């Protein structure tokens, strides 16, 4: 019971707001109501801003522009005017080498490798104009927004990073709905958990025009009063010349078939204080958020969430799937997992989460469940997910 309450709290305070983080087009202007932005604004920085060195069309139709790493959208942020780019982290968290136990045959899902020349970074073109008409946020998500969440919340600690291995699925979201389903690693802090940094995948047909699992980073810009993701508003500094944010993760896992995963690490560089995001094969450093962007997670996080959530106008009445779309009790190969979950402590060391700060739960356990969680020498692990209302 207590677990449910914990996640319910999370749902009320956080996921409600989080819901906006991974969505296109949306700026949340706190205190000033909410507005949507028009296409011109969305693409201005990307298309007519920095000079495009090269245009790359991926298999499947995604288009990436290669732009000069020093002229990327991030530097339009008022707080990054005099920012000196850090091309590499000064160190990495220390601790165990993360390998999956060999008894499970799983392979890595691949993010799109975009062949931008060194000195440039790939920026995905906004697909929205091709797929949906532009609408106000109220029209897109309805006047009251609905969310469900399932996973583990970890509270009341000093968080300098976290690492997790995430099983990649393509949860079913009705393609004519405005809902989406995401699985994320998220660190947050501040009153009402007001500031967050997030990495993970989401399926959002209304917003991306398809039902693939796409990799995103997202964050709250408390100063600019926005929730942002990828390069749709300035802030995230990308250093990788080939990691395509917003790109499709392939292959996705198959229920009772081959399983695929990605490894996500978010950690604070102890020297520069930048929050780095590392992912996927060869642990690619994608880029970072400068701590100067933040008010509350400048120094550290206080809470972490690992798990799935759904959001949108029908997310509670006609809920999309989370994870594999199957309940956590089905276990390996059938239910989605997150494992090798570790925290980075203030000494820049991986540590296992403290059990008494771990709160697994579901906002509605008739739709989604979390199961089999525990901590072993590989870190914390769980199965999570469910069919929602799509039975
Ligand atoms: C939803 O997906 C199905 C199967 O791919 C397709 O036949 C249908 O046209 C799609 N509906 C919408 C509204 O895009
Ligand atoms: C949980 O979901 C079920 C199925 O959609 C629904 O009937 C029930 O009212 C929900 N419970 C809560 C507490 O929202």
Summarize the structure.
The chain has helices at residues 2-18, 39-48, 128-131, 137-141, 205-208; strands at residues 26-28, 34-36, 52-57, 63-68, 106-108, 120-124, 146-154, 161-167, 180-189, 195-203, 214-221, 226-229, 236-238, 259-268, 275-279, 284-289, 303-312, 336-344, 350-351, 358-362, 369-376, 379-385. It has 391 residues and is mostly beta strands. Strands 5, 8, 13, 14, 15, 16, 18, 19, 21 and 22 form a 10-stranded mixed β-sheet that branches. A 7-stranded antiparallel β-sheet has the order 12-11-10-9-17-7-20. Strands 3-4-6 form a 3-stranded antiparallel β-sheet, with no helix packed on it.
Mind explaining what this structure looks like?
This protein has one domain (2-385). It is built from five helices and 22 strands. It has helices at 2-18, 39-48, 128-131, 137-141, 205-208; strands spanning 26-28, 34-36, 52-57, 63-68, 106-108, 120-124, 146-154, 161-167, 180-189, 195-203, 214-221, 226-229, 236-238, 259-268, 275-279, 284-289, 303-312, 336-344, 350-351, 358-362, 369-376, 379-385. The strands form four sheets. Strands 5, 8, 13, 14, 15, 16, 18, 19, 21 and 22 form a ten-stranded mixed beta sheet that branches. A seven-stranded antiparallel beta sheet has the order 12-11-10-9-17-7-20. A hairpin with a 4-residue loop joins strand 11 and strand 12 (226-229). It is globular, with a radius of gyration of 19 Å. Residues 1-48 and 128-144 have low confidence and may be disordered. One 2-acetamido-2-deoxy-beta-D-glucopyranose (NAG) binds at residues 175-176.
